[in-house]
Amino acid sequence: MRVxxxxxxxxxxxxxxxxxxGRNIPEGTRGRLTRWWAWIGLSALLLGxxxxxxxxxxxxxxxxxxxxxxxxxxxxxxxxxYLGLGKGGKFSLQQVEGTLLLVExxxxxxxxxxxxxxxxxxxxxxxxxxxxxxxxxxxxxxAAGGTATEIAYLRREFxxxxxxxxxxxxxxxxQLGEPRTPFTMLLDRNRKVLFAHLGxxxxxxxxxxxxxxxxx
Length: 216
Fold this sequence. Notes:
Layout: H1 2-8, H2 32-48, E1 70-72, H3 77-83, E2 90-92, E3 100-106, H4 111-128, E4 137-144, H5 148-158, E5 164-167, H6 171-175, E6 183-187, E7 193-198, H7 204-214
Parallel strand pairs: 3-4, 4-5
Antiparallel strand pairs: 1-2, 3-6, 6-7
């Protein structure tokens, strides 16, 4: 049991299946999907035993420059305005306004992503209230394997205030070395990696100070 509990605090493997083949998720399902996927994971461990997943050796690291990533433009006008994007169905990270970009790679059904969400919501609001950081720091989540319907559900469920874009075919996820989730990066204007972390960021006060120190 101790091994199982430790596993629940490790970065979560991306799940490439979704319920009801992408149809609308009904209202009133608050928390059910999270618990369902968590119990499936626990059952698999109990039946097959726990084997640690090998860490990827090709994930982005501090000092590396990301490849050119092409993402789906958010549908919400408010999200486009926040990121400084114009019209068009696609965009690159280089087009996002600001001097520092926080990119969070998530899975829609990832329990650790759900655990991190409230803290990142507070972090986002804290930055939005800081006159020096508000215009310079941007948040962007990328939902690996997520559809627009699932992302809409996730934003409602966890009241996520910053943009989440879909990566339905895992194209961006693969370009980043297929990290487990959550995987968080801080990037400069040239999309050089200034910070990279696999798993939940527990000390958000220290992370805030890290962000503030990277902004000129």
